[in-house]
Amino acid sequence: MERKWKSEKKLPKILRINRVRGLLISVLFSNGHNRTLDFKEIFKKWTIRKKDKEYKLLDPAEFKRVKLEDATLTWDNVITEMKGLNGEKVHQCYQIGADILYELSESDQTREKLPIGSLIRKARIKAGLTQQELGQRIGSDKFYISKVEAGLFHIEISTLKKIVEGGLHKKLQIQIK
User: How far is CA 113 from the centre of its chain?
Assistant: First the structure.
C-alpha cells in the first residue's frame, strides 16, 4: 500500500538580496515577502566570539561580500572545515540557509508597502471628489475608501481597477521597472 505523507509547511527560499547595509541584509523570499536580517543581533543571539569562524563577518567590509548561491547566503571569504563521508577534511564557503534565516528575519517595511492608498487619495483629491463620492461611484462607502487610502487593505488588481477606472475615471497603468 502506498503511503501518503502529510505535506510539511513549505519554507520559503531566498530569491534575491535587495541590499546590504552594515550588518543588515534585506532579502526577497519566495513567498513574496521582503525581510530584513540584522546580523549584529543574530550573531549576538548566537554568542559569536573571536574564536568562531563567523567573527570575521562582524567587519562590515567582510560582511558585504555576501552572495546568494542556491537560495543560501554565502560568504566565500569565510571557509569552514568539515569531515566528509570517508573522514577526509572538506572545505566549503560559510553558508546560512533560508531554513534558519526566515525565522530570524523581520518584515522590511521599506519594501513591503506599495503606496497605492496614497496614490488613490491624491488622485481623488485632484479629481475634486470626497471619499463618500468615490465610494458611491464604485458601489461602496467612505469607510471603505478611507481604509484603502490608509493602506489598511491589500487590494486586488480588479478592485484597484474598479476604483481607478470606475470611480476616478482614469486609466490604470501598471509598470515593472
Answer: 10
